[in-house]
Write a structure and sequence with these properties.
- The structure holds 2 protein chains of 2 kinds.
- Chain A folds into 2 domains: 217 residues, Rossmann fold, CATH 3.40.50; 62 residues, ACT domain (Alpha-Beta Plaits, 2-Layer Sandwich), CATH 3.30.70.
- Helices cover 32% and strands 26% of the residues of chain A.
- Chain A has 11 helices and 13 strands.
- Chain A has a 6-stranded mixed sheet with strand order 5-6-7-3-8-9, sandwiched between helices. In chain A, strands 11-12-10-13 form a 4-stranded antiparallel sheet.
- In chain A, helix 8 crosses helix 11.
- By secondary structure, chain B is mostly helical.
- The radius of gyration of chain B is 20 Å and the shape is globular.
- The chains are: A alpha/beta, B mainly alpha.
- The interface between A and B is medium-sized, with 28 and 21 residues.
Chain lengths: 305, 275
């Protein structure tokens, strides 16, 4: 099986500065991958290289087996792209805009009419000009055009920026539906918390370099970030017995005991704490979030010469 | 449906919605009608038909107005979409960049043709309705004037596209477009005239003069419409036309070249461009 996207040692230089530097990865069918990095890290440049909008200085890009710059244009019918802060021709109605893009992708009319419902744009909104649309409606129209023709690859650049939480949720639900059908999804974002539960794989880039690539669990393990365990003993006396153990518990103001535990010791500590259910009234385990993992990898890269 | 047709259709749809089409048509029609009714009054009886006088008036109007309208429509075509962000999305679609340029160009030419045909046609119709005697020969010249006006518009649309595909900001494109207009419509002729007058014509062989006149599309257009025998008697350009020895075919060819070269360059620039 060929990869949906493959990048081999791709670099893009503007003068002396590298927008992306020696990035390699490949994405298979049905993968949902988060491309994480802060503003200016090279996310958009990477997506543009995948779309063939710029020629890499070095390296090889293949999308659905074709070179996106010089290869067969027809593969683009199977690629959906939602640019960051998408814009449309303001004088046209939503329906006219979608009809225009559908024609370019050779999607017959009966196969895109229901897209308005899918992305949650009311039919009467579809017949208003895009000029009158709110940010959320434009973003929905943007998603609708990206979903034209059941794409095999979806490239979404900051798709949820500026959307309210309810809209974000329906956005992700729709994207996940497509992913289940085998569409590869590459999603760039710096809103890490919302990717946490959704992305199977995370690629972190910073300063144009890929600094981490793996599932969130793998990255947590590589990062060796401690898990925080917090519990409330049922009585004062029970609390004291804990201070003698190997784990350094700290008592918080709300009478909770808290400790940062290494990934490898996590299970042992948890079983020790829970060995006597009567001795505690409440407990929480806080895994390092994607935010923490991201911060860790950024710091580690900063230390490298 | 072909990509070029899809792009052109959308562009015309937008032009209609933005009222560009109606604005240009009304502008040309009102000026043409004004000229056809009033423009012949000061000439008195010079032995030329009314229609010939209208042709000369409209051709003089075209030289100033049509390049301006063409540049106004075209200078924004690529860089405007780039700045508004719509180009980024369009380029991710299965459409070649040359198809985008050509489709949009075609739409602008159609808009311009529609406006010219309707606007100038209204002036011709007004003469017929008013019962002015005309000859078949004059009508041929009138048709040729409309055709070459569209060709002149195409020249400046193509130049506008080249500007639009080259610069990275709309304001720059606007400035350059204005400069192009000033140069070809006003400065070039003033310079040429000044040079001929100051040297008393010495050194200006007919061959050199021909090249200099073809080097400016508005001059080629001027010769094409004002240099003919009947119109020439009104416009006083027949002398120049005779001495430059340029046939209408050569003039048309030079205008066609003025369309093809800037448009090809625009496509080339745009294809190499990175976003």
């Amino acid at each position: 099986m060929t990869a949906t996207i493959s990048l081999e040692h791709v670099s893009k230089f503007y003068g002396d500065t590298a927008a992306i530097n020696d990035v390699s990865f490949s994405l298979g069918e049905g993968e949902l991958v988060a491309l994480v990095g802060h503003n200016g890290a090279g996310k958009t440049t990477l997506i543009k290289a995948i779309l063939g909008l710029l020629r890499p200085t070095d390296g090889k890009v293949r999308v659905l087996g074709e070179d996106p710059v010089s290869g067969n244009l027809v593969v683009r019918r199977e690629v959906g792209y939602l640019p960051e802060s998408v814009t449309f021709h303001l004088a046209l109605t939503g329906r006219e805009v979608l009809s225009f893009y559908a024609k370019l992708k050779r999607v017959p009319a009966d196969r895109w009419r229901n897209l308005f419902d899918q992305v949650g744009l009311a039919q009467n909104a579809a017949d208003r000009t895009v000029r009158t649309y709110s940010k959320g409606m434009r973003q929905r129209l943007g998603l609708a055009q990206a979903l034209l023709g059941e794409p095999r690859l979806l490239l979404l650049d900051e798709p949820t920026s500026g959307l309210d939480p309810a809209l974000r949720r329906s956005f992700y639900d729709l994207i996940l539906d497509f992913q289940k059908k085998g569409t590869t999804v590459l999603l760039s974002s710096h809103a890490l918390s919302e990717l946490e539960e959704r992305a199977e794989r995370v690629v972190i880039i910073n300063g144009g370099n890929k600094i981490a690539d793996g599932t969130l669990d793998e990255l947590r393990r590589i990062a060796c970030l401690p898990t925080q365990i917090r519990f409330k003993p049922s009585s004062e006396s029970a609390a004291h017995s804990w201070f003698d153990g190997p784990v350094r518990w700290i008592e918080r103001k709300d009478k909770f005991l808290e400790a940062s535990v290494d990934h490898s010791e996590k299970i042992a500590v948890l079983s020790a704490v829970t060995s006597d259910p009567a001795a505690l009234t409440s407990m929480t385990v806080i895994e390092p979030t994607l935010d923490d993992v991201y911060a860790h990898f950024l710091q580690r890269q900063g230390r490298k010469p | 449906m072909n990509n070029i047709v899809i792009i052109a259709r959308k562009e015309i749809q937008e032009g209609l919605r933005n009222r560009w089409v109606i604005a240009v048509t009304l502008l040309l029609a009102s000026l043409a009608l004004t000229l056809s009714f009033l423009g012949s009054a000061p000439t008195g009886n010079v032995g030329a038909g009314r229609l010939d006088i209208v042709i000369v008036s409209l051709a003089s109007l075209t030289i100033f107005l049509v390049p301006l309208i063409a540049l106004l429509l075209s200078h924004d075509a690529i860089v405007g979409e780039l700045e508004r962000g719509t180009l980024l999305l369009l380029l991710s679609y299965p459409v070649a960049r040359s198809q985008i340029v050509f489709g949009k160009f075609l739409a602008h030419i159609l808009i311009l043709s529609f406006a010219t045909l309707l606007g100038y046609g209204a002036a011709g119709l007004a003469l017929v309705v008013a019962g002015t005697p005309t000859t078949a020969e004059s009508w041929t010249a009138f048709g040729a004037m409309i055709g070459s006006s569209i060709l002149l518009g195409s020249v400046f649309t193509a130049i506008g596209y080249l500007v639009s595909a080259t610069v990275s900001q709309r304001s720059t494109a606007g400035g350059i477009a204005l400069g192009v207009w000033l140069f070809f419509v006003i400065i070039y002729d003033m310079g040429l005239l000044g040079a001929i007058v100051s040297t008393k014509g010495v050194g200006f062989s007919p061959g050199l003069l021909s090249i200099l006149l073809m080097a400016n599309p508005t001059d080629a257009y001027r010769l094409l419409n004002l240099g003919s025998e009947t119109a020439g008697s009104v416009s006083a350009l027949s002398g120049l036309a005779a001495s430059s020895k340029l046939s209408p075919t050569v003039l048309m060819a030079s205008l066609a070249l003025w369309v093809a070269v800037p448009l090809s360059l625009a496509m080339l620039r745009f294809s190499r461009r990175e976003l």
